[in-house]
Amino acid sequence: MTIYTVFVEPKTSGNIGFLARCMKNFGLKKLILIKPCKLKDDAYYQAMHAKELVENAQIYETLDEFIEDKQITQTIATTGTPGGSYNIPRIPITASQMGEKINPEKQNIALLFGREGDGLSNEELEKCDTLVTIPTSEEYPIMNITHAASIIFYEIYKNTQKTYPIDDMDIADYEDKQVLNQAIDEITQKLDYPDYKQKQVNILAKRIIGRAFITGRELRTMRGLLNRINKRIENKQEE
């Protein structure tokens, strides 16, 4: 399994080089660029000893194309403007909380970093399983993208430099989790939720499932439960 560092629509090639340099500091090797600016000499200059990461970077036109192509199990996005409890698409966890839960040995993980200055759009954030924010001083709360990336990379590196105790554990993959999300979607469509509420519930469920470390047995049990709920609702509606 793999961790991909994904830079969405970078505007300056120098920042691509800086990001590659940060990646190499913490042993990350897969750089993905979504609809990037033209790569110039400063990308390679700023990368220093990580030039090969820039040279080997893969380019995609859209985020959806990348997620489907690499069969991403967990998508983690960063934001400098988190929301509160009633802004579900922007409810975040901290970088340290994210680092404690991540398991790259069992998952294909995408770390999303947005455009310089603009960040990721609400639509892009809604595609993500986990949202991460880094607490900063109110005097200057917005971080440079490569500074934020370094903190995220450090938390992952710190928590993954160990051997997991059960190597053969059956862990739910991307397709397994999609089955749970689809089951919840089917249930919410049958309930009397307004459209906006249904969307919020589905995003919330997707985030919880995305953050969760789910074994195959746990997933099958949850899927059976959701299928029973779905069937009960259908029977009730037919009466």
Automatic annotation (TrEMBL):
CDD domains on file: SpoU-like_TrmJ
Q: Which UniProt keywords apply?
A: Methyltransferase, S-adenosyl-L-methionine, Transferase
Q: Where is the tRNA/rRNA methyltransferase SpoU type domain?
A: 4-154
Q: Does the keyword Cell membrane apply?
A: no
Q: Which Gene3D superfamilies match?
A: 3.40.1280.10
Recorded GO molecular functions are:
RNA binding; RNA methyltransferase activity
Q: What class of enzyme is it?
A: transferase
The catalytic activity of this protein is classed by the Enzyme Commission as: 2.1.1.-
Keyword Methyltransferase annotated: yes
Q: Pfam families attached here?
A: SpoU_methylase
GO CC field = cytosol
InterPro entries linked to this entry = Alpha/beta_knot_MTases, RNA_MeTrfase_TrmJ/LasT, SpoU_MeTrfase, tRNA_m1G_MTases_N
SUPFAM superfamilies, per the entry: alpha/beta knot
What GO terms in the biological process aspect are recorded for it?
tRNA nucleoside ribose methylation
Give the UniProt family note: Belongs to the class IV-like SAM-binding methyltransferase superfamily. RNA methyltransferase TrmH family.
- The protein here is known as RNA methyltransferase
